[in-house]
Write a structure and sequence with these properties.
Blueprint: E1 7-8, E2 17-21, E3 45-46, E4 49-50, E5 55-56, E6 66-84, E7 95-101, H1 109-112, E8 120-127, E9 133-137, E10 143-152, E11 156-157, E12 159-166, H2 170-176, E13 178-180, E14 189-193, E15 217-218, E16 228-246, E17 257-263, H3 270-274, E18 281-288, E19 294-297, E20 305-314, E21 318-319, E22 321-328
Antiparallel strand pairs: 1-12, 2-6, 3-4, 5-11, 6-9, 6-10, 6-12, 7-8, 7-10, 13-22, 14-16, 15-21, 16-19, 16-20, 16-22, 17-18, 17-20
Length: 330
């Protein structure tokens, strides 16, 4: 799978933050993780120079490099990074690298910038192109919580995306009891869907309520037979107890109805799960939906231990959030 199809572990909506930068004279470090695509505004200047939508340090006149510390929104295994230098043409870094560490709790910034942190290089010094998307695969199976992003020797980067697989604290989640098994923060991931023309499938399991109609999963208008669907791998195998289907913001384009099916096939390939002959067990029979409404669905069928669910919408439309509440199997 293309690593950009995975979750961006550093994104702001998941709690990602740039905690410190040794220099952000021309453009603030916080821009680096902004969700919106970078823009260029001709003729816009600040009292420090040209306004740029990214993180930009001053011109270095001594040996070395510039760097910043990033707290991942969710801890996890990193599979790839995208260094976006959009609109930085004569002022982009020549190279960049990534180091990572894993620290429990919420360490203070003062601790993270000391020499006591054992940073591990996960992406060696790599060349960058200006005004470009620079993708880098990362081969490392360790769980990380923080990054140190280095640019050589100085310059500007518009955005940094860090794609991977969420690895939650399972001991803590087991102590909590009933959780949302599908939530991204609990390790859930939307593996595939029939269509996501208007809204990305990952939105379905993001934290909190949807901000607007663009912050949900929405398919194009279906003109033929059939229905739309999405397959979600639960963060951990568990027993489903009740559901929430939220159609908030979808008023003239919500599905007429929905259903949910489940299976216990932790090792099954995506191709097998998408096979029409695969045996899914019904958890929620086809249920009518309303516009712009949170539907709390407590009457679900007990199918035992579940690793994946298939969420069906009839015939098409948009859903802002799906919650699959249950208990984790030890």
């Amino acid at each position: 799978m293309d690593f950009t199809e995975l979750i961006d572990l550093a994104q702001e909506r998941l709690g990602g933050a740039v905690l410190f930068a040794n220099d952000d004279f021309f453009a603030p470090k916080e821009n680096l993780l902004k969700s919106a695509a970078p823009v260029f505004i001709e003729g816009k200047y600040t009292d420090r120079g040209k306004w740029m939508d990214g993180w930009e340090s001053r011109r270095r006149r001594t040996p070395g490099f510039d760097w910043c510390i990033i707290r991942l929104g969710l801890p996890g295994v990193i599979r790839g990074a995208l260094v976006d230098t959009s609109h930085f043409k004569g002022n982009y870094p020549e190279q960049s690298s990534l180091e990572a560490c894993a620290i429990d709790g919420l360490p203070a910034t003062e601790q993270l910038i000391t020499e006591s942190i054992g940073w591990i290089e996960i992406l060696p010094v790599s060349s960058l192109n200006g005004d470009s998307l620079n993708p880098f695969s990362i081969a490392n199976d360790q769980r990380w919580t923080h990054l140190r992003f280095k640019i050589y020797p100085d310059g500007g980067v518009a955005r940094l995306r860090v794609y991977g697989e969420v690895m939650p604290d399972w001991d803590r989640l087991k102590r909590i009891g009933q959780i949302d098994l599908a939530a991204v923060e609990n390790g859930g991931v939307v593996l595939s869907c029939s269509d996501m023309f208007f809204g990305h499938r990952h939105n379905l399991i993001m934290p909190g309520r949807a901000l607007n109609m663009s912050d949900g999963w929405e398919t194009k208008r279906r003109r033929g037979p059939g229905h739309d669907w999405t397959i979600i791998k639960l963060g951990g195998r568990g027993h489903i107890k009740h559901l929430e289907v939220d159609t908030s913001w979808f008023k003239g384009n919500f599905p007429e109805s929905c259903s949910l099916e489940a299976c216990d096939a932790a090792d099954a390939s995506l191709e097998k799960l998408q096979d029409a002959a695969f045996d899914w067990k019904p958890v929620l029979s086809r249920t009518k939906l309303q516009a712009h409404t949170r539907h709390y669905l407590d009457e679900v069928m007990d199918v035992g231990i579940t690793s994946h669910v298939r969420f069906n919408i009839f015939p098409d439309g948009g859903v802002s959030r799906l919650r699959v509440y249950g208990t984790i199997e030890d």
